[in-house]
Amino acid sequence: MLAMIERLLVLGVHLKSEGYPNVLYRLQSLANSGTFDVSEINHPMWRTASRVRPGLRAKLGALCRAVWAHLVVVTRYLLHARSVRRVYLPYPAVFVLFALSYLPRRLLPEWIVADAFISLYDTIVVDRKLLAASSLLARALRWMEARSYRLANRIVVDTPQNAAHLCSMFDLPSAQVVAIPLSTNETEFTLTAPLQPKPVCTVLFVGTLIPLHGIAFILDAITRLAHRQDIVFRLVGDGQESAKIAALIETLGHRMVWINNWQSSAQLADEIANADICLGIFGEGNKTQRVCPFKLYAYAAIGRATITGDTQWLRESGAAEAFASVPVGNGLALAARIEMLADSPEARAALAIGCRAFYESKLGNDVALIQLIDCFRP
After folding, report:
1. I need a labelling partner for 77 at 20 to 30 A (CA). Which of 90, 170, 230, 260 fits?
2. Of all residues in the chain, what percent are helix, strand and coil, respectively (each to 5)?
3. Mean of the pLDDT values across residues 339-363?
């Protein structure tokens, strides 16, 4: 049995910032849980949550910082190794695990819980196709990631579908990989009073514009609803597919507002609170089927009617009753659902209540903390 108060070492190269809310608020929850006496060895491998600047010099600098961070963390760990029983590795955990995997058993903790969050191999090779699966570098990355995960007693991901995918990809036993909801900012993203019906219905999308989001289908829906003077769209975010928004806004600017500069959690919460309808993800890729992105947590926590893709996660999690859904990759269906909700304040209100109830029962930080603490019980 787990002792009432036991020492827990948080070990990693993680960045605790709003750019990585799962790390920030998960560690806060652990520290405040009263279950553990938490200490930390951390040397962030990134300076900020922003992407690495282009150019060889900047990339080499980022690589050097990453290597140095791992050397510092492993060295500091070795100074405490004999007194450490339980260790938690926040994301990104994989390279720290890889380094630890070469230590003798007597220098390893009794129990390791690591947050995988997203797989490097899956992201680089399968999702973004930056490396061919048959290439030597891709095969080396897969081997390295598999070796790293096998060291941990528990690997944490965010959905059961991602857990099954990780087990399949790296041949891991199902009991080793645990699905726990992400931890979020519950100070800013908190229940807000429902909006009163008004002449103009505001539809909001927040995201980093990666293929997973299906921005092309959102823009298709916006184009199909251009005749509706009482529906306006606000898009918040920037990223890989931003050119598609830039092209459309030239012709439909009067129906669209695009905020492409960085927004704080307070600003995002304000955008969500002032939206009548919020949009989730609609991409056609396999990854879309497995994820529950941060935006759905935020929409549901604040209590807003939300439309998202009809995915495997949505159906198997019980969220189909909380969120309005449409087939992924279908701008026509999305436009029809937006129009239906725009015309029905009552339907929006019912969805908002269902979203918040689902958040409280399935996605809240307290729910995640209980499940994470259980991971430390052998």
Report:
1. 170
2. 50, 15, 35
3. 97
